[in-house]
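R.M. (postdoc): so does anyone remember the format we settled on? I'll just put the C-alpha cells first.
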C-alpha cells in the first residue's frame, strides 16, 4: 500500500453489490468461455440487469429520490429472479436414439431367422443344425460379428449425439449454481440499502394500493371469463346428462337385446365347436397323410439319387467297355495278320507235301528202273519169268 494513501474505509452495501456482481460476471464469462462482446443473450441480459442494479444501489446509498421502493434494484432480492434470467432451453438428443440398437438387433436376428427357416424347413428336425450354429456360419453382415459391429457403431453415434447436450446441461447447471449463490450473497446488502429508504407516504400507499387493485382487477376479469366458460361447459354437461337419462330406457332394451344376441352367439359357438371335431380329425388325418407323403417324397428322392448314381456308374462302365473292346480289337489285329500268314504257309506246305510225295513216287519208279538196269547189266541168272515177277 502506498504510504501517502489513506487507509481504505469499510465496504459499503453498494460496494458489496458491485463486487458480488462483478465477480459473478467474471465467473460466468469463464464458464461460458466468452467475453463482453461475445456473451450469449441470457448472460448479456444478466450483465445489463446487474449493471442497472449496481447503479441504483449506489443511488440508493447516496439518498437519491430517483430510487424508491418500486425500483428495479429490489427485484434482485426476489428468490429466483436472476436464475430465471439465465435459464434458457438447451438442445436435447432424440428420445428414440437408445432404441436404435434394439431395433437393429431384432432386425438382424429376424433376417437370420428368415434365412434359417427358408434353408432348413424341408429338412428333418433331427438332421437340421441349430439356429445359432447356422447363424455363426452366415456372412459377416448377417452374423453375430456384423451385429456386434453395428451395435458398437450405433452406441458410439448415440454417445456422440449425447455429448453436446450433456455439455450444455453441465454448463447450464454451473451457471445456475453461480447465479443462485449471487442471489444469496446479494440479499444482505440489498436489505441494508432498502432499510435506509424513507418511510412510505400516504400517496405512496395509495399508489401501491392502486397498482395492486389494478392487478387484482385484471386477475378477477380473467377468472370471470374462465368462470363463464366453465358455466357454459356445465350447461353442456347438464344437457348431456338429461339426454343420457332420457335414453336410459332405450339403453336397457338394447342391453336386453345384446344379452339375447350373446346367448345366440353362445349357442352358435357350441354348434360350431361340435362341428369342428370332425374337421379337426380330418385335419389330423390330412396332416398325417401329408407327413407320410413327405416321408415318401424323401424316400423317393433318396432312391432317385441312388438310381442316378448307379446310372452314372453304368455309363462309366459302358464307356470303359467300349474302350476295352477297341483296345482288344487293336491288340488282335497283329494276331489276325499272323494267322492269315500261317494259313497261307499251311496251304503252301500242303502243296509242297503233295509235290514231295509225287516226287518220292517218281523216285521209287526211277530206283526200280535203275535196279532193273543193274540186273540186266550184270547178266541176271534168273529166268525170264522170275524177272517178270521181280518187276
Amino acid at each position: 500500500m502506498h504510504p501517502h494513501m489513506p487507509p481504505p474505509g469499510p465496504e459499503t452495501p453498494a460496494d458489496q453489490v458491485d463486487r458480488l456482481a462483478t465477480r459473478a460476471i467474471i465467473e460466468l464469462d469463464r464458464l461460458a468461455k466468452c467475453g463482453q462482446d461475445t456473451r450469449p443473450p441470457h448472460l448479456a441480459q444478466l450483465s445489463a440487469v446487474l449493471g442497472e442494479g449496481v447503479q441504483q444501489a449506489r443511488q440508493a446509498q447516496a439518498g437519491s429520490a430517483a430510487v424508491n421502493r418500486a425500483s428495479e434494484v429490489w427485484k434482485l432480492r426476489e428468490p429466483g429472479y436472476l436464475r430465471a434470467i439465465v435459464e434458457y432451453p438447451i438442445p436435447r438428443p432424440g428420445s428414440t436414439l437408445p432404441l436404435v440398437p434394439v431395433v437393429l438387433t431384432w432386425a438382424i436376428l429376424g433376417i437370420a431367422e428368415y434365412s434359417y427357416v427358408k434353408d432348413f424347413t424341408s429338412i428333418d428336425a433331427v438332421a437340421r443344425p441349430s439356429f445359432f450354429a447356422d447363424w455363426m456360419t452366415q456372412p459377416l453382415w448377417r452374423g453375430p460379428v456384423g451385429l456386434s459391429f453395428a451395435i458398437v457403431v450405433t452406441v458410439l453415434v448415440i454417445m456422440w449425439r449425447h455429448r453436446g447436450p450433456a455439455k450444455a446441461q453441465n454448463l447450464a447447471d454451473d451457471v445456475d449454481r453461480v447465479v443462485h449463490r449471487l442471489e444469496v450473497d446479494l440479499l444482505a446488502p440489498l436489505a441494508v440499502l432498502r432499510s435506509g429508504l424513507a418511510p412510505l407516504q400516504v400517496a405512496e400507499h395509495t399508489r401501491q394500493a392502486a397498482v395492486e387493485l389494478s392487478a387484482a382487477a385484471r386477475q378477477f376479469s380473467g377468472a370471470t371469463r374462465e368462470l363463464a366458460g366453465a358455466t357454459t361447459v356445465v350447461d353442456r354437461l347438464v344437457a348431456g346428462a338429461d339426454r343420457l337419462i332420457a335414453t336410459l330406457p332405450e339403453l336397457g332394451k338394447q342391453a336386453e337385446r345384446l344379452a339375447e344376441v350373446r346367448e345366440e352367439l353362445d349357442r352358435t359357438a357350441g354348434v360350431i365347436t361340435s362341428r369342428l371335431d370332425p374337421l379337426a380329425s380330418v385335419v389330423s388325418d390330412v396332416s398325417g397323410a401329408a407327413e407320410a407323403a413327405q416321408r415318401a417324397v424323401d424316400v423317393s428322392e433318396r432312391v432317385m439319387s441312388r438310381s442316378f448314381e448307379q446310372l452314372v456308374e453304368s455309363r462309366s462302365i459302358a464307356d470303359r467297355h467300349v474302350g476295352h473292346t477297341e483296345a482288344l480289337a487293336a491288340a488282335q489285329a497283329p494276331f489276325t495278320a499272323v494267322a492269315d500268314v500261317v494259313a497261307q504257309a499251311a496251304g503252301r506246305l500242303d502243296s509242297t507235301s503233295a509235290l514231295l510225295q509225287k516226287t518220292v513216287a517218281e523216285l521209287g519208279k526211277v530206283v526200280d528202273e535203275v535196279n532193273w538196269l543193274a540186273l540186266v547189266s550184270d547178266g541176271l541168272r534168273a529166268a525170264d519169268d522170275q524177272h517178270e515177277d521181280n518187276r
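R.M.: ...and that's the designed sequence above, right after the C-alpha cells. Also worth knowing: The two ends are 193 Å apart (CA to CA). Confidence is low (pLDDT under 50) at residues 1-7.
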